[in-house]
Specification:
The complex is a heterodimer of chains A (307) and B (581). Chain A is an alpha/beta fold. Chain A is 34% helix and 10% strand. A five-stranded parallel beta sheet of chain A has the order 2-1-3-4-5, with helices on both faces. In chain A, helix 4 links the parallel strand 3 and strand 4. With 581 residues, chain B is an alpha/beta fold. Chain B folds into four domains: 130 residues, Rossmann fold (3-Layer(aba) Sandwich); 184 residues, FAD/NAD(P)-binding domain; 156 residues, FAD/NAD(P)-binding domain; 58 residues, Alpha-Beta Plaits (2-Layer Sandwich), CATH 3.30.70. Chain B has 16 helices and 28 strands. In chain B, the strands form nine sheets. In chain B, strands 8-7-6-12-23 form a five-stranded parallel beta sheet. The chains are: A alpha/beta (307), B alpha/beta (581).
């Protein structure tokens, strides 16, 4: 048997869902675990940050970084992972595009602190804590602007199947080959090329289970989203929210692609669109705002304030 | 040329005589262009489109080994074909030519701001040069043309077109939904100019068409399906009676469906008395020695006409236009009738006898003492039907007096409007319509008979109100266009089309919905089906490429890269090339 592959798994600001999804490979863990030598994994293996800091540079073969990096601590961890790992994987949509925490860029840092601490509905006389906490960056920037990654595995979370496919290939030293199709490719619903007459919120009406949700008026961004999920949501009656980000090249602006698709698909008056699409930013850029063109403008603006 | 080859760009700034140079500092623009990346030659010249200008391009391509040519002159609509040919003659692929519009987009619209115009010209040239560096060779493709024309409509326009084409040795399928050929004209008794009736005019044409071995006539029939692209259409034609269908391979099409004579319900008591008729209805009355009142069949002695009924009504969609044929037609009918009736009166807003012989008709009518009385705009004559009698009341502008008249027959010169079923025809042939409801030509001045569907021509009153003579001119013109395409046997099709990268397509159908030309279909032989572009149908508008959510469509010759490069060149110009100071 060959030597186990050394692996480090690190988490920035995120929900731990991606690692949960990794663990969800269940019995396959029995196959994978003997093949790996865990060098660092917060919450799971008993290593401290100083252990990670103590490894020689590039001594770990594979690193997975989950979450985005907004605190000083996150950024330190991310850079450290880059130093220590030969192959660094951007693991999950937060790490690849900013993800849900990237939505914080709709607001200024002060506004975030206001809602979270000072004026939190569940707290009385709230204050922004100052002790023992790392500094928070003024804005969420894409991880890829902090360090380079070898591999991007998006998803919120990446499916267990995808993780297994990717890890197996990696451990066997083979290239990870992922199909480039969007979610529509995997969607079983029938498409009739009908432009949208009316936009429906998810709770409105009862959707025909056999027809394209978008054609029925529900905003589904499946056509602008990498289908590594294999169409789970759309085939179970829910619209695609775009959690896997854009299809390759994943530097595409997913929200811009979705909104321009929507523009030709929903030939409605702009006033009607403005009234019925209540949160276009959150709707089309839910997972990719920091890596989008619009998001980049926002980042520049926030950064300019601090200079 | 290989893609790795370094671009060597030549820039030619055209004065267009005084048109551009009178406003834009062309020398400064040419000088600026010299400093742009990849530019190895830059100059300005009096007329780039003239022989000397064309030769200059060829010489400079040779002398400086140029592999990209930018001409900053007029609109590409004007001279892109010219310059593409020139660079081809100089040995370059035609798609390595880039034209900047410094005339329509700069000098003509910023005539009083020479400084700002010059800056804009520099911006545009900088953008064009940046794009030129990214241009790629594209193949020049052609498709074969089926030597058969489908003529839709067997009125005077369709008949003339069919004959012209057949006489030049090409097959024609002539379709008319009516049981008889001849259209409106065949039914009319007074044709202007000249003294022959409609059936006398169109009769010989019908005879000739029927006798022609190359013309297949399908009356009582409609085109129900139409598919394909220039040179290679397929039309399904259905007999309206027995529902029998036949299919034809077609190379070119002439749509000559004509017009509807407006039925002016709600105007001047139309419908309230049988003695109030439209001009078309008067024309269709059976010819006899005496004009009889439709109501009781007694001879009429007094007749009145009202002009501009349903025409020239500002703000009323489909009725804003002048119907053009009515003034001379009314003059002709009135002067003919004056020989047999006691009194003939014409009420009008204004008289437009613009064509050859029209004014003579107008004068003839007046010389025969046909009474012309002008009513003010906005004060239409009042018509009442009392005890079966038609009573008219109006103000005469020149007498400034209210006048009354009781004609035996009142004739409303009603508008020419678009066919009631024009919508179906529009969709069938992928045409577009203008505000007045009639078909849009490809270009009102430069391409008045062709449409945005290559291979489909329009002629006659289907395009705008026209009289019979004008329609026949159209017919011969459209026939010449059709023959031109068929005589060559094959047509070049633009390579500036969209292309699907099949691995990236995920069959979301967005492009199929977005394409205004029906050029994209799903290739069902693939599983799942993927989008597929019929290049001959593609107009290169780029809508699909913009709409494709997975970036699976490339718009050739306007790739994202080429467009972004232009944006970048505009926004991030090197400091020494920015216009102004």
């Amino acid at each position: 048997m060959t030597e186990p592959t050394s692996i480090a798994m690190a988490q920035g600001s995120s929900c731990w869902g991606c690692f949960q999804s990794l663990i969800d490979i269940h019995l396959n863990l029995a196959t994978v675990l003997p093949l790996i030598d865990i060098k660092y994994w917060q919450c799971v293996a008993d290593f401290k940050l100083k252990d990670l800091e103590g490894y020689p540079d590039k001594s770990i073969t594979v690193g997975l970084y989950e979450g985005m990096a907004r605190t000083e601590e996150d950024i330190h961890l991310l850079k450290l992972m880059r130093e220590k790992c030969k192959i660094l994987i951007s693991f999950g949509s937060c790490s690849c595009f900013g993800g849900i925490p990237g939505l914080a860029n709709f607001s200024t840092l002060e506004e975030c602190l206001e809602v979270k601490f000072r004026n939190n509905k569940t707290v009385k006389d709230g204050e922004v804590p100052t002790e023992n906490l790392p500094t928070i960056a003024p804005v969420v920037v894409p991880n890829s602007t902090i360090v380079d990654f070898e591999i991007f595995l998006p998803g919120c979370p990446p499916t267990s199947k995808l993780i297994l496919t990717a890890l197996t290939a990696l451990l066997e030293g083979k290239p990870i080959e992922l199909p480039p199709h969007t979610v529509c490719h995997y969607c079983d619903r029938e498409k009739k090329e009908t432009p949208i007459e009316k936009i429906l919120r998810p709770y409105e009406g009862i959707a025909d289970p056999d027809r394209c949700l978008l054609e029925q008026g529900y905003i589904c961004v499946g056509s602008a989203t990498w289908g590594l999920c294999e169409g789970q949501c759309v085939n179970h009656g829910a619209t695609c929210r775009g959690c896997f980000g854009p299809p390759p090249p994943i530097t595409n602006d997913q929200g811009a692609a979705a909104i321009s698709m929507f523009g030709s698909y929903a030939p409605l008056e702009s006033e009607v669109l403005a009234e019925t699409v209540l949160d276009p930013l959150g709707c089309f850029w839910r997972f990719t705002y920091p890596t989008s063109h619009l998001g980049a403008i926002r980042i520049k603006r926030e950064e300019a304030k601090t200079k | 040329m290989t893609e790795a080859e370094t671009p060597r760009i030549g820039v030619f700034i055209c004065h267009c005589g005084h048109n551009i140079a009178g406003v834009v500092d062309v020398v400064r623009v040419a000088k600026m262009a010299e400093s742009l990346p990849h530019v190895v030659f830059s100059t300005d010249d009096m007329f780039m489109c003239a022989d000397a200008g064309q030769q200059l391009i060829k010489d400079m391509v040779e002398e400086h080994s140029l592999n990209r040519v930018v001409v900053a002159s007029c609109s590409p609509r004007m001279h892109e074909p010219t310059f593409r040919r020139v660079v081809e003659e100089a040995g370059l692929n035609r798609y390595l030519f880039e034209q900047t519009n410094l005339r329509e987009h700069v000098s003509w619209c910023h005539m009083r701001e020479p400084e700002a115009a010059t800056e804009k010209a520099m911006d545009l040239v900088r953008m064009s040069v940046a794009r030129a560096a990214k241009l790629e060779n594209l193949p020049v493709k052609s498709v074969k043309v089926t030597p058969r024309t489908l003529v839709v409509g067997g009125g005077i326009t369709g008949l003339r077109a069919a004959l012209d084409i057949a006489n030049r040795g090409f097959d024609v399928v002539l379709v008319d939904k009516e049981p008889k050929l001849g259209g409106h004209v065949a039914k009319w008794t007074h044709m202007f100019t000249g003294d022959r009736s409609g059936s006398e005019v169109v009769g010989p044409l019908v005879k000739e068409v029927k006798a022609h071995s190359r013309i297949e006539i399908l009356t009582n029939s409609s085109v129900i399906e139409f598919d394909g692209y220039i040179g290679n259409f397929e039309a399904t034609i259905e007999n309206r009676k027995d529902k029998a269908r036949s299919k034809f391979d077609i190379g070119t099409v002439i749509v000559a469906i004509g017009f509807d004579a407006f039925k002016p319900h709600g105007y001047y008591g139309y419908g309230e008395s049988p003695d109030i008729v439209t001009l078309a209805e008067l024309q269709e009355m059976p010819p006899r020695d005496r004009l009889l009142k439709p109501s009781d069949g007694k001879p009429a002695s007094k007749i009145a006409f009202i002009g501009c009924v349903g025409s020239r009504e500002p703000g009323k969609r489909g009725h804003e236009h002048c119907s053009r044929h009515c003034c001379p037609a009314v003059a002709k009918a009135a002067s003919d009738l004056k020989d047999r009736l006691d009194e003939v009166l014409i009420l009008y807003k204004s008289i437009r006898t613009y064509g050859r012989g029209h004014e003579e008709l107008h004068r003839l009518a007046r010389s025969k003492h046909v009474i012309y009385s002008r009513f003010p705009d906005g004060e239409d004559p009042v018509i009442e039907v009392v005890d079966g009698k038609v009573k008219m009341r109006w103000t005469d502008i020149y007498a400034d007096e209210e006048l009354q008249f009781e004609p035996d027959i009142l004739v409303l010169a009603s508008a020419m409007v678009a066919r009631s079923d024009i919508d179906e025809t529009t969709k069938l042939f992928g045409l577009t319509r203008s505000r007045d409801g009639f078909f849009n030509p490809e270009h009102i001045k430069l391409a008045p008979l062709t449409t945005h569907t290559a291979g489909v021509m329009i002629a006659g009153a289907a395009q705008a109100p026209k009289n019979a003579s004008e329609s026949v001119v159209d017919a011969s013109g459209a026939a010449a266009k059709a023959v031109g395409i068929m005589a060559r046997g094959e047509v070049e099709i633009e390579s500036t089309v969209s292309r699907v990268i099949s691995e990236l397509c995920s069959s979301c159908h967005t492009c199929v919905t977005a394409c205004p030309y029906g050029a994209i279909e799903m290739d069902e032989s693939k599983d799942p089906p993927i989008a597929f572009v019929t290049e001959a149908k593609c107009h290169g508008c780029g809508t699909c490429a913009a709409a494709c959510p997975s970036s699976a469509i490339i718009m050739l010759h306007s790739t994202d890269d080429q467009i972004m490069t232009m944006v970048q060149a505009y926004l991030c110009a090197p400091p020494d090339t920015i216009g102004g100071t």
